[in-house]
What does this fold into?
Amino acid sequence: MKDTKKRIALLGAGPSGLFMYKRLVESGISNLEIEIFERKQQLGAGMPYSVEGANREHITNVSGNEIPTIVTSIQQWINEVDGNVLEPYNITPKNFNDYKVLPRLLFGTYLEDQFKLLQAKAKKLGITTVLHKGIEVTDIVDKPELDQVLVEFEGSGIEAFDHVVICTGHNWPKTNEGKVDGYFDSPYPPAKLALKINHPLAIRGSSLTAIDAIRTLARSNGSFTLNKTGMLDFEPAKGSEDFRMVMHSRNGLLPAVRFHLEDSHLQNNSLLTPDEIEQNISKNDGFLSLDFIFEKDFKDLFKGKDPEFYAYIKDMTIEEFVDDAMGFRENLNPFALLRLEYEEAEKSIKRHKSIYWKELLAVLSFAMNYPAKYFSAEDMLRLQKVLMPLISVVIAFVPQTSCRELLALHHAGRLDIVAVGQESDVEINDNGGITYHFTGDDSQHNSVRYKTFVDCVGQPHLAYEDFPFKSLLDAKAVSPAKLRFRSADNGKTTLKSGNKKVKKEVDDYYLEVPGISINDNFQVVNLQGKESDRIFIMAVPYIGGFNPDYSGLDFSEAASLKILNVICN
Ligand SMILES: Cc1cc2nc3c(=O)[nH]c(=O)nc-3n(C[C@H](O)[C@H](O)[C@H](O)COP(=O)(O)OP(=O)(O)OC[C@H]3O[C@@H](n4cnc5c(N)ncnc54)[C@H](O)[C@@H]3O)c2cc1C
It folds into this structure.
């Protein structure tokens, strides 16, 4: 007898797998058989909230009220969980409130418990869940003729499914780590950075990934104490007298500080609807205009919220707005600005009042995810060159405790930042360590040797060739993401200027963007341009071209709903 159950595989059980599981369990479909493959033993926590991505000192950059509900709220979980779980973090139901950020490892335990609650719910509803813990998926084979997908996993296992959702998440490729003394390709897992260091070390990057590394390295080489002003002092440990960290970033800027968000989930009812986006595309030779998105999903939102700011920006182009916002940041010492923004954010949190332009920039970044695949190559280049540098600085939302540590380290002469421009280069030294070559603000060429180097540029957008499930590549069941130039002349000029991502196809020019092609519902798209009804992807590093923003848990919640709608239909 034919099994009429719909068989669905979730590959990876981090936050994306968890949200997808929740959607399926709550979908109202009962003839479901869900198999979950996770290479770790812990379900739900994924990379950032497990020991793969955090030590005890690492915290989320969102607070309880900003986290989409899974089964129980964080507050409820904190009230009910065994005190031993909270004790290492000095958290009690009394001193916790929903506006606080959380230790990432504790958040991972919360996610793990949510997974268990969902499993119980599924069981009650008659939904079968099969868990494959500690099992790595090695390949995926599409079988269009059978309308099935085969999942191959460790130990020569192979199983067939109706739908597969790829939720394999973060990947930090290793190039030199382990081969070059003192070289770290990423700061993860952070336990590896618990090192005693008595020399200056280089950090590439200055955003949240860099701050993760800084917090671990600082603890291994000194300690923080609370001073009379409520801020922190840093004292180096004996044997770490020469310990010093130097961040290197293109523009020499630090990320902005977390403040009170008026709308905690980056959703906004005034954003463009899919119909309005569609209309703009059809009026615009098949391309969505970046200026239109900037006008409607950013500037117009200020009309009601901050009319004064609206009047200030209403006639600005994207370039003018970015120049204005960046100019302000570039003219101040980054640590002085951090201190100012820290104070501004404290007020915002105390008064529960947002800093609208920053919040709405985060909304814009989130909103641009869906339509990014409809931009012309020209607009994508503008987005990458002009808007993304500002967005990445502003929406990192550095938590207050991280801020206090950065300020204390800088004050103690243990942390600095240098601008290295667009053309910096990291040379590997034969006898270990690196030499950083860059042109500084003074236009002088610098070459500085470091015995220790930690690459903290954040999760890279991975290329099409890096896609891990090779049978899908071989069968051309997935295809590279690319955007057409609106004007062939522009494409030709960009190609001539040396941009290796530009390719000519017949009479048109295309810009290759990172990762594989997807449609609006996260279905993979084959080389013929046809979306798959069987294979979906939520692993953001592999879809970075068509889904450029990494909005964490909000993304997992939104993408899982779109996928569910396709599976249900
Ligand atoms: C350091 C860091 C901190 C972050 N902090 C925040 C934050 O505070 N707030 C926020 O909203 N977002 C944050 N983010 C964004 C973050 O990406 C998401 O919150 C979330 O981790 C994404 O979940 P995911 O399930 O897609 O990926 P992951 O968390 O990477 O989970 C993927 C899972 O798949 C498993 N897996 C991978 N490959 C295989 C395979 N072949 N077979 C079987 N299993 C596999 C992994 O073991 C893992 O459990 C952070 C990101 C990083 C890198």
Observations:
- The mean pLDDT is 93.
- The pocket of flavin-adenine dinucleotide is lined by residues 11-17, 37-40, 46-48, 53, 60-62, 136-137, 167-170, 212, 459, 538, 550, 552-553, 556 (CB under 6 Å).
- The CA atoms of residues 170 and 465 lie 16 Å apart.
